[in-house]
Amino acid sequence: MSGSVPKLFQPIKVGRVELKHRVAMAPLTRYRADGQHVHTDLGVEYYSQRASTPGTLIVTEATFIAAKAGGYANVPAVENDAQIAAWKKITDAVHAKGSFIFVQLWALGRQANPQVLKEEGFEYIGVSDIGLQGKPAPRPLTTA
Q1: What is the side-by-side order of every strand in the sheet holding 24-25?
Q2: What is the residue extent of each domain of the chain?
C-alpha cells in the first residue's frame, strides 16, 4: 500500500465549510427533546461527544420545522425561541470542538401520528387526502 492518505480521510469543501475528512455522522432520531420539542442538556452532551474529532460534519436528527408539522413526541423543533436556544447550545458545543453541524429539517405530513397531533392541538394534514395504510385520511393542503 502506498503512503498516500485514502480519499476518505482527505479534506473536502462542502459549500463554505472545509471539512478535515469525508466521514460524516448521518442523522439518527434520538427522541430526547422534552414535551415542548425543546432539546435537553443530554442533546448537548450527545452531539458534543460526536464532534470530538475536529473537522467532522454532523447532520442532526430530524428536526421539525414547526410542532404542527410534526406528529411524534420528544422530537426537537426549530420553531420558537426556546427550541432555537437549545439548538444554539448544541451548535456552540459542536463548534467549540472544531466541528460542523447541519440540521435536517422535517415535516411529516401524512406520515405523522394523528393522535400525537391531536394531543398537541394540531390538525392532521397532508399533500392529498390519501392516507397511509392503517391511518385516517389527512386534510389535503390547498392553494386557497
Answers
A1: 24-25, 57-64, 100-106
A2: 16-107, 110-144
Cell matching residue 111: 406520515
pTM of the prediction?
0.85
DSSP the chain: --SSPPGGGS-EEETTEEESSS-EEPP-----B-TTS-B-HHHHHHHHHHT-STT-EEEEEEEESSGGG--STT--B-SSHHHHHHHHHHHHHHHHTT-EEEEEEE--GGGS-HHHHHHTT---EESSS-PPTTSPPPEEP---
β-strand partners of 25: 58
Is residue 24 a contact partner of residue 59, using CB atoms and an 8 Å limit? yes
| End-to-end Cα spacing for the chain | 64
pLDDT in tens, 68-110: 888 899 999 999 999 999 999 999 999 999 999 999 999 999 9
Question: Per this entry, what is the length of the chain?
Answer: 144
